[in-house]
Amino acid sequence: MDVKKDILWRVYVSFIVLIGIGIAIFSKAFTIQQVEGSHWRSMSDSLHEKIQSIEADRGTIYSADGQMLSTSVPQFNIYVDFGAEGLREDDGKRFKENLDSLSYGLSNLFKDKSQEEYKRILQKGYQSKKRYFLLEQKVSFEDYKELKQLPLVRLGRNKSGFIAETKNIRLNPYQLLAFRTIGLERQNAQKIGLEKAYDSILQGTQGRRLVRYIAGGVAIPVDEDFQIEPENGKDITTTIDTHIQEIAEDALMKMMVSSESVNGCAIVMDVKTGAIKAIANLGRRPDGSYWEDYNYAMRTTEPGSTIKLATLLAVLSEGKTTLKDPVEIGSTGSAFVGVRLVNDAERAPKPILTVEECFAHSSNIGMSKIAYKTFATQPHKFLDYLHKFHLDTITGIDLPGEEMPLLPKMSKSNEGLHAMVTMSFGYAIQVSPLQTLTLYNAVANNGKMMQPYLVDAITNDGLPVRKFLPVTIAENIANPTVIKAAQESMHDVTIEGTAKNVFKNTTYPVAGKTGTAHVADGKYGYNDGVYQASFVGYFPYDNPQYSCIVVIKTKPYAPLHYGGQLAAPVFKEISDRLYTMKIRQGSNYAFTHINDSNNYQYAGQKNDLKIIMQQLRIPYKDSTHSFGSWSVMQKSMNGPILYAGKASNTMMPDLKGLGLKDALFLCENAGLKVNIKGRGKVVAQSLASGNQIIKGQIIDIFLN
């Protein structure tokens, strides 16, 4: 029995020991995983280093008048490394001495928390020894500059532990203005507009840096010597004029709001070059507001009567018809033309009209009759003319999303004749407003068809990389006699025809064409009372400068739905304001001179600036006399003036506008350590001008 008890006692002791060991192992595992987990993960992550990509600054999209239409601006996420040696040395003396003043400064700067709240947050972070403690998100560049001047922070990263993570965000400063055309570059979203078309040029080349990962997978740069700076994207300058764009957008918006229309667009084009000066697209939202939600300018629809210009050009080009030929319209407003019944939206003023009057009064019967008379035996020939006028293909504008026109097949059967007659007054064919405007612009340009385009130049750090020149699609879409007849017919629309009431008091001559079409697309059918109202033309008639098209889709059963009621008034407001702003009366309708309102300032070595001005043959006034070698060139009412500059080694100078060479000269002479971001000229600096300089202090210089 004694032996048995002895064995059992040993077994029990062994069992208890094993249970104790198991409990100890479990407790230790729990402690490591749950209590000390972040510490050990941090230790593990800190052993992992790799090369990380650095995003390049995306290029800026400018208007023709130098305004930023889309640009990248920096935002900063502010972290604190509470494990920084400089922050914890001497038992945290530096942190404790600056805590109150730093908390006050943060509260006063961001205005989102009280001083006491910031103090508690900083103390909690310090006690936890977090290596990447998030303090503030989405801090603007201006706030970031002020932050770097606060107590403790201004001592630099190693002593303060403050780390700024830069993220660039894309902004459209003008918001609604040409929003759909310019587009918006967004993360995890499809690009649109010019942002998409020129993405490879705007995005630049990524840089690289060596980083170490800490807890939470956060990457911290290891050493700036192991960093390759990204190459920023190139800028593009568009043909869009913000003043003209604002005029077009405003005129279209007022009509859309007053008529509660579904959507609309307005395009303004330079007649001689095809450059798009404005392109407005507005769609109605469920709440009744309007936004640039879709590029309606490039969406194909049945155009209605604006296609009658193509019919007129085709008929006159055959040489069997003249503008003065009579056409029997009748007095009932409807007539059988070949194989189908054709109706006029409004009764003709008399039963017999000339060809020119049929066009001016937009008679469907008259235009279909002259088309049938000319092409009844060979309807495919009418299609050949549409091909010659480039109405069967896209314009090739440098913008994604242009829809392909839709034309029916043509044959000598009744089906082919029906399609030809129907097309002659704007149905059974689908073209976009941009394609229609391109044809009308060709007539304004005496038959020379230009390709519409939106980008004028690509630049890099202000230097030209590529200049886009106007492209001719066709030297002559018709012979000069036919073009002249079409011009006269379009002018007659505004003085005797469907748009005479709109333009009767206009002090300058206009040529154009109204259009009204029943809409049958999506949920709407021809009987749902939805119309597309259009007006397209150019001005001044005797010396064309701009062509323009306005297209508006109405709500069902809108009381105003004709092109002369909705679209023509918008065209007139645009042309009135453009005429006043850009064109003055006279034999040549010369453009008004616009004084350069841009301020400029360039600083550098006096002799260098003088050499540049002499080489460029720019007259200037020298007021430097014998003061120093540093000078500043500034604008004045009487031209450039060279002033004596101040290059102090104790006060921070204003570096804005300087090249890198001159900025480094000033900073290094003052004993500053310089971090350089970007290329080009200085646009911002981390140390504000006028502040006292401390030798060895770090300054960040941001170039454009």
Would you write up a description of this structure?
This protein folds into four domains: 2-35; 50-237, Alpha-Beta Complex (Penicillin-binding protein 2a (Domain 2)), CATH 3.90.1310; 242-582, Beta-lactamase (3-Layer(aba) Sandwich); 601-703, 2-Layer Sandwich (Trypsin Inhibitor V, Chain A), CATH 3.30.10.20. The model is unreliable at 585-598 (pLDDT under 50). It starts with a helix and ends with a strand. 40% of the residues are buried. The strands form eight sheets. Strands 2, 3, 4, 5, 9, 18 and 19 form a seven-stranded mixed sheet that branches. It has a six-stranded antiparallel sheet with strand order 12-11-10-23-22-21, sandwiched between helices. The radius of gyration is 36 Å and the shape is elongated. The protein has 704 residues and is an alpha+beta fold. Helices cover 35% and strands 23% of the residues. α11 runs parallel beside α13 (364-375) and α13 crosses α15 (414-423).
